[in-house]
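Hey, sorry to bother you again with one of my protein questions. I've been staring at a protein lately and its backbone has me curious. I owe you a coffee for this, so here goes:
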Amino acid sequence: MRIELISTGDEVITGSIDDTNASFLSRELIAAGLQVNRRHTTGDNLEELMALFTEVAARKAVVIVTGGLGPTNDDLTTEAAARVAQVPLELNEQWLERMRLWFAQRGRTMAQSNIKQAMLPQGALFVNNPVGTACGFVLKINAAIFIFAPGVPRELKAMWDLSLKELVLSFTQDHVPRTHLIRLFLMGIGESNLAERLAALKLPAGITIGDRAIYPLIELKVIGHDASDSDLIATLNQIMTLVAPFYVCKESYSLLEILNAQDIKLAPCNAVDGLCRGWFLIHLQELCTNFITCTVLNTDTTLLPPAEQALGHQLLAQIPPRNEISLLPVHFATPDATLSAALSELPPDWHYYLLQFNLDFTEHEQAHNLSGQLLFGFKESIYQSGAYTRNRDFLAYLCTIEIYKALVRENFIIPEDCALKALAVHDSRSH
C-alpha cells in the first residue's frame, strides 16, 4: 500500500501561496514512520480533479486530499470525489447542526451556501473539524482510501492531531512498510569529501543515505525503509565512526532546544566579538538569550593606528572575566607560555584566533562552571579572505558550536583545513 498526497486550489498551483500543508503532512508522516510515495497538485477544476482522483484510485493507497471543501462555487473537491465514486451527495445532519451552532456562538447568521459543506458523498465516514466549518471525510474509491481535509493550515493541523493521524496509522497498519529517518548535522567537511568517506559503506537492503548542504552545515539523512532495527543501528554506528570529527547534532538543528532538553541553562554572558563584525554575537544566541554586555571590536592591526588598538585593550580590560565569551586574534590575547608553546607547534604562516570562555551554568538546577581556551588556525586571514568556506560567518558559527560541544560533553569539531588546539578546558562536573 502506498501513501499519496493531493493538494488542491488555484492559489496553490499558481504559486500564489506556498503548499505548506503537503510539507507539514510529509514531516508528520515520516515522523510516524510512513514515507510519502507521491505528491500531486491540481487547481479548482472539476474535470482535472476527477481525472486525478480516478488515476490515484486505481492504486492501492491511502490518499490525503487537502482543500476545496469550502462553501463557494470553486470548492469542487467533494463533488469530484462523489462523481468518481459514482455515489450521490447526502446531507449530513450532524455536521449541519454543528455549523449552525458554530455561527450562533459567534453571533453570526449562517448563509445558505454553507449547507454545501454538510453535503457528503454517500457512504463517507464523517471526520470532525474542531476549529472550522469544513468537516473532513473518508471515502473508499476503487482500490484507494481517500481522506479529505480542509486546506486552511490551522484547521488541517488541528484535525491531524485530533483524529487524522490515528486514521492514517490504522489504515496503514501491517500494509505500509515503516520508514525511519535519522538526520545528522555535520560541519567542516565538503559534500564531495563526505561522499568519498561514505563510498565504502555497504548498505543493507532498505537503507539509503543522502545529504543536502545548508551552509555552513550538511544534513546527512539515513533512511531505513522496511529495514530491520539491527541493520539501521549498525549502519548508523559505521557512519558515526566516519563523520565523528564533523558531527554537530542529530534530528533537529537547534542548539538552544537541545540544551533546554538537557536542562542546561547559561547565566547571563559578557560576549566579545573581535573578529566577525557581530556575526559571533548573533550565533551565540543559539546558546544564550541573556547577555549583560555585547561588544564588537575591530582588531585588524593593518587598519588600526596604535592609539585605537590601545583603546581596544582598555575596553577588554573593563569587561568582567566571569561569564565571558571572547573571540580575538592571538595578537590581542594576553600572551602566556601555553599559548606560545602551542603556536610553536603549528605552521608559522597560518593565521590564528583564540576563543576563550568562562561560563557559569546550571544542569538539572545544579550550579557548574565551564572554562576553556581554543586556538583556531586557518591558512587564510579572516580579515582579508572572502573564501565562502572560511569566512567570518563560518568562524562565528564554528566557535558557537564548539562551546555547545563542551557544554554537552562531546568531542570538538575539527574542520578540514583547520588547525584546532584545546589549550585548556575545565569542567566542574565530576563526570
